[in-house]
Amino acid sequence: MTDSGRKIQEVDQYIAELPEDIQAITESLREMILNTSSELKEEYKWSMPNYSYKGLVCYLQASKKHVNLGFQKGNELEAIVDRDILQGTGKTMRHVRIKSLDEINPELFTVLIQAAIQLNE
């Protein structure tokens, strides 16, 4: 279980205002992110939850139909996963689009988050 002291009220509120199915996905991803490393700090910036360790690591961006698990240095993560998993055409940012709870892949996402943390070392 996560240390609830690491969860911040702004993110609780952000999740509470989402559609119910999207809330479940977002909360599940949040738990997974916080469980990946006790070093990650939850913040609320740019109107969404962000997680940082020596700089930004990942973020959650919810919409009506899906949640993006995004990575600030996602372009550097493409080497470790199947190219189709990470989406986005920005200079560095990439994301995984999740439309349902069963699309959450804890093993894969944890590897991505840990690799993203390593990029900030």
Automatic annotation (TrEMBL):
<dbReference type="InterPro" id="IPR014922">
    <property type="entry name" value="YdhG-like"/>
</dbReference>
<feature type="domain" description="YdhG-like">
    <location>
        <begin position="23"/>
        <end position="117"/>
    </location>
</feature>
<protein>
    <submittedName>
        <fullName>DUF1801 domain-containing protein</fullName>
    </submittedName>
</protein>
<dbReference type="Pfam" id="PF08818">
    <property type="entry name" value="DUF1801"/>
</dbReference>
